[in-house]
Design brief:
The structure is a single chain. The protein has 338 residues and is an alpha/beta fold. The protein has one domain: 3-Layer(aba) Sandwich (D-Maltodextrin-Binding Protein, domain 2). The chain is 49% helix and 18% strand. The strands form three sheets. The protein has a five-stranded mixed sheet with strand order 2-1-3-10-4. Strands 8-5-9-11 form a four-stranded mixed sheet. The longest helix is centred in the last third of the chain and has 35 residues. It starts with a helix and ends with a helix. Bound molecules: D-xylonic acid (TK8). The site of D-xylonic acid has 12 residues, from β3. Keywords: Signal. GO terms for molecular function: carbohydrate binding.
Length: 338
């Protein structure tokens, strides 16, 4: 009798333990709707990676975490979405680090003209400790940085003339990302730098409110800038990262399991996105020419002159992010494989 009781007791304890574990696991992933916004079209490197991220999250959560993606800035410009995340009105987004400088000035370090020489070097620095440190600066501002994606090396388009030498920037009304480093860099070049959100860019080019803009090949293609721009000048003047962020208010209410699923998906999508972006960029110039743009490659001598001319903008970066962080990034760049 006694033995039977003990066995029964053990069985009950065991089964209630099992129930508890299952209940906890189920409880660990709650049905949620995640609004994920971005600025480019669905048919872009950004859109393709957003789609993959949504699929990865659905798969890993058995469909409980549902990501709805909103492209073409339909939830607002980068700035507007960042504010929505900080206020808890939107859950996630991907956008330019350059548009985050007003939130966390550390982000300006990535805007240093000619900072990186290759994508590989950028990956090492961004995914390394100093990249993480810059990302972590977002937390106290109400955002959680999850992963850097690639926007890419930026090149110049305009309707006035091919930019072959420094002097050719003269008087060109150039849209730049709303950020002090970009404004200074292009003012130094002699352009008339006009800060505008990306979501207003196509119309501004179409209506000739501005003469030109600068973005990676991928964006020139996916946003069809070739329809409203004549000249493309290859400068590779800066490498732009994108960053996937989440609302901290919302993130802090997620279980560890949910956070892990989302973090992992952001990183899987990052690896896919970088490969996809690079493959697309390799084919892009030919396609851009097919669309009728005139392409010129700026000579190394002239690039050197532009580098020199942009040097005071580096001081703007240092003033914004502080010398220690600037130096830390420089050291990481020097150590990184090219
Ligand atoms: C898209 C922007 C874009 C960026 C810009 O929302 O603003 O020119 O390069 O990718 O973040």
């Amino acid at each position: 009798m006694k033995r039977f009781l003990i066995a029964a007791l053990a069985a009950t304890t065991l089964s209630s333990a099992i129930t508890a574990v299952t209940a906890q696991a189920a409880d660990d992933i709650r049905p949620r709707m995640i609004r994920f916004g971005y600025g480019l079209n669905e048919d872009s490197n950004q859109g393709r990676a957003a789609k993959l991220l949504a699929e990865e999250i659905a798969k890993a959560s058995d469909g409980k975490l549902k990501v709805r993606t909103f492209g073409s800035a339909s939830l607002g410009s980068d700035d507007q979405m960042q504010n929505a995340l900080m206020g808890g009105a939107q859950e996630m987004m991907v956008g330019s680090t350059a548009t985050l400088v007003g939130v966390a000035e550390e982000m300006a370090v990535w805007d240093t003209p000619f900072l990186f020489e290759s994508e590989k070097q950028a990956d090492h620095v961004l995914d390394g400790p100093v990249g993480q440190k810059v990302m972590d600066a977002l937390e106290e501002k109400g955002l959680v940085g999850l992963a850097y994606w690639e926007n890419g090396f930026r090149n110049l388009t305009n309707n006035v003339r091919p930019v072959e030498k420094l002097e050719d920037f003269d008087g060109i009304k150039l849209r730049v990302m709303p950020n002090p480093v970009f404004i200074d860099t292009f003012k130094l070049m002699g352009a008339n730098a006009v800060p505008l959100p990306f979501s207003e860019l196509f119309t501004a080019l179409e209506t000739k409110a501005v003469d030109g803009q600068e973005n990676p090949y991928n964006t020139i293609l996916s946003s069809k800038f070739y329809e409203v721009q004549k000249y493309l000048s290859v400068t590779n003047h800066v490498y732009s990262p994108w960053i996937v962020t989440a609302s901290k208010r919302w993130w802090d209410g997620l279980s560890k399991t949910e956070q892990d699923i989302i973090m992992k998906a952001a990183q899987t999508a990052r690896d896919f996105e970088r490969e996809d972006t690079r493959a697309e960029a390799r084919e892009a110039l030919a396609k851009i020419k097919e669309q009728g743009m005139e392409v010129n490659k700026v000579s190394p001598e002239e690039i050197q002159r532009m580098r020199e001319q942009a040097k005071p903008a580096i001081q703007t970066v240092i003033d914004t992010v502080g010398e220690p962080l600037f130096n830390e990034v420089q050291a990481a760049v020097e150590k990184a494989p090219k």
